[in-house]
Amino acid sequence: MSDLYKNLIGGEWVEGHAARPNINPSNTKDVIGEYAHASRGQAEQAIAAAKAAFPAWSRSTPQERYEILKKASDEILARKEELGRLLSREEGKTLPEGIGEATRAGQIFAFFAGEALRLSGEKLASVRPGVDVDMTREPVGVVGMITPWNFPIAIPAWKIAPALAYGNTVVIKPADLVPGCAWAIADILHRAGIPKGVFNLVMGRGSEVGQIILDHPDVTAISFTGSVSTGRKVALAAVSGTPMKKVQLEMGGKNPLVVLDDADLKTAVECAVNGAFFSTGQRCTASSRLIVQDGVHDKFVDAVVERLKGLVVDDALKSGVHIGPVVDQSQLDQDLKYISIAKDEGAKLAWGGELLNRETPGFYLQPALFTETTNQMRISREEVFGPVANVVRVKSYDEALSLANDTEFGLSSGICTSSLKHASHFRRNSEAGMVMVNLPTAGVDYHVPFGGRKGSSYGPREQGAYAREFYTVVKTAYTLPV
Ligand code: NAD
Question: By the number of CB atoms within 10 A of the CB, which of 63, 145, 371, 399 ranks highest?
């Protein structure tokens, strides 16, 4: 019988109305634990607890918030190997990737511990004589958070830490598939002394627990990361209730990596392989569209295929593994569906796309690279969210830029070139929230804003000091001293 991990509601650990096993995608016989599903009533209790805790927490001192966030950071960093292992075991990214992500979560908590102390306002001279005008930032209220499965610790961290730093209270529903890391953060915050009700964890299905968070009038703001289709539902729910909620959405991508004839080939191949296939391609910032100029196209494809042949796909926890399994059967089915669609559309499979058998039963897929594709094919337009990428051949930089921007998404984009002229032009004209030059489209710093344009994002940016745009509300105060 595996352990039962409970929800954290109003400072108490509470059993749910059901529980779901958290299964290791590298070995489906390995159950990490049973994770309690909150009932409708429990989700409502969590929101009530967050509402009741808000007045005191919103007036707590920056020092008090700093200390709790710093304690959480210290513990996450001290336990990064263990948390990274848990992450790899539940999500399937390799152990170094899991430890890297756990480290990032610790760094994010440290960053926002400092931000709690740095929150400032502004003062301007009024246009009216004798009047003072002050602009200050206040917390928003109860923030509901809904997170996806692909970054089980970093995404919860980059929502929870700023929310708490700026004086909000939190109700979070992590992805049902990977609740382990969010549970670990809840346990850490609880033991770090977070006051009752300030932070609440409710696990369960999106359509049940998530929907209650979306519909509840006492939730003031919603921070969501996930697919476009769910994001749209979140936005509609946020504005259709009374009062309307503040909303922030981070969604999918079909991120282009442009490779020009003058690129350093080794750099371009590394950017493509890392960006498209590492973390099993399950990154919103994955370089799933490789747009490659004619002169280097064949050499580039050969070199990428050579590199893919050398990659080890196996159990995420084994050493020497480059690519872990796909997260679950349903994502694997989606990956295989797109591989079949691409073939039917006339794309040429240059490498991979086969299911792999390993020592343990898991969702192992050989990374797939398609060539002879156009930007109009579904493989170029729709997010697969797996280790699948396609190459589109172009004649010129201008054509490359135009295809890079010809997408409904706009999260991240990249260019490999040694031309300063093209690099500068691309940085200015790429319609993406994040632009990389000679770097993979995935892989970002934790202290600067993260987010996209067009169908990839909606609302203020996450991370860095920019996070305060979402987690605070500005008050303009006029005073006439008499
Ligand atoms: P998803 O949209 O299926 O689920 C995301 C979350 O929403 C989960 O917690 C889920 O339970 C919840 N949910 C589902 N239906 C809901 C409903 N009706 N009401 C409330 N909540 C509901 O996405 P996923 O499969 O978990 O994640 C993959 C997607 O996330 C990809 O599209 C990926 O690009 C995107 N993503 C984006 C970013 C980013 O920052 N832009 C980062 C990571 C992942």
Answer: 145
